[in-house]
Amino acid sequence: MSDLPNCPACQSSYTYDDGIQLVCPECGNEWSKEAGGESSDEPGIRDANGNVLVDGDSVTVIKDLKVKGSSSVIKVGTKVKHIRLEEGDHDIDCKVEGIGPMKLKSQFVKKA
């Protein structure tokens, strides 16, 4: 039996120690050993890997995203610079090169 904590994102018991951090193989969540998981009292919007995002950061899209009302697609690996954070479901306001102003969900990006 493992003495490691369950994953704070999906509650999986299959977490493992990866040197500096703990990793969940089921959902891909990573968190520091010292934090013991994500704390709900820490402010901020987090990316897909759990890193805190701030205004002005650059992020990379981790999944192909269809643009609603258009046949365009934001391809995986697209880098978006100078993001602005907002409250709500789509919490990143940005300008995607070649597409224009856009709102993204933080779960589909990682900090660049």
Number of strands: 13
Report the structural category.
Answer: mainly beta
Overall body shape = elongated
Terminal-residue CA separation: 36 Å
Q: Count of helical segments?
A: 0
C-alpha Rg (nearest Å): 16 Å
Helix content: under 10%
Spans of at least 5 consecutive residues whose pLDDT stays below 50 are: 37-41
What are the secondary-structure elements, in order, as H or E? EEEEEEEEEEEEE
> What fraction strand?
25-35%
Pfam families: YjdM, Zn_Ribbon_YjdM
Protein name: Alkylphosphonate utilization protein
Family: Belongs to the YjdM family.
Domain Protein YjdM N-terminal: 4-32
Describe this structure in words.
The protein has strands at residues 16-17, 21-23, 30-32, 45-46, 52-53, 59-61, 65-66, 73-74, 79-80, 84-85, 92-96, 100-104, 109-111. The protein is an all-beta fold. The radius of gyration is 16 Å and the shape is elongated. The chain starts with 15 loop residues before the first strand and ends with a strand.
